[in-house]
Amino acid sequence: MYRCRIPPEDLREIEYQRDHHPDALVRKRMTILWLKHQGLPHHQIAELSDAHPNTVTATVRKYVKGGLTPIRDRNIYRPPSQLDFYRTRLSDHFSAHPPRTLKEAAADIEWLTGLSFTLAHVRGFLISTGLGKPRPDAFQNNQMLLRAPGKAALGSLL
User: Fold this and answer.
1) Is the distance from CB of 22 to CB of 31 less than 8 angstroms?
2) DSSP alpha helices (H): ranges in the chain?
3) Which candidate, 13, 9, 63, 56, places its Cα nearest to that of 35?
4) Residues 15, 2: contact at Cβ < 8 Å?
5) Which of 83, 135, 78, 138 is nearest to 105 (CA)?
6) How far apart are CA 81 and CA 87, in angstroms?
């Protein structure tokens, strides 16, 4: 069981951040430290904070070694996409020739880069470049044509 003394300025920060931090994991870590300051044993802190006892130990250990900074840090591993190297080339191509379907976009990506991806990956890439979002204006214009007065013949054809 780690023993740690929390200075008053850190304690004020912990008390505030355990309720107001936007990240749930950081709030949980702050709660663990607050309960540790209250003098509770690790097994009781684990029960009250709904955390594994190893998480309690790791959180206290992080605080003892580095203060509040490592408690607030989230080191989320995010591998780089294979398409990052081709991002500008693909963005230019899709700006000039917008794909009508995801299959068409996937075929263009394979043709330009030699890499093939699932449709879900292609959709995520298009959204990240700002090209894959739905265009509600085009849909609304079609609906307005169908409902426009004097255009009943157009609606009856569809």
Assistant:
1) no
2) 8-20, 24-37, 42-49, 53-66, 69-72, 87-96, 102-113, 119-128, 136-147, 152-157
3) 56
4) no
5) 83
6) 10
**Residue 155 and residue 158: Cα distance in Å, rounded?**
5
Query: Which residues, in sequence order, are CB contacts of 76 under 8 Å at separation 6+?
Result: none
Q: What's the CA angle centered on 130, arms 143 and 97, to 5 degrees?
A: 75
Residue type, 80: P
pLDDT digits (tens, 9 = 90+) for 62-98: 999 999 999 998 888 888 889 889 999 999 999 899 8
* Distance between CA atoms of residues 118 and 83, nearest Å: 13
Question: What length does the chain have?
Answer: 158
Extract the tokens encoding 134: 């739905």
Q: 54-70, pLDDT tens digit by residue?
A: 999 999 999 999 999 99
Q: pTM for this structure? A: 0.56
The number of angstroms, rounded, from the C-alpha of 97 to the middle of its chain's C-alpha atoms is: 29
Single-letter residue type at 83: L
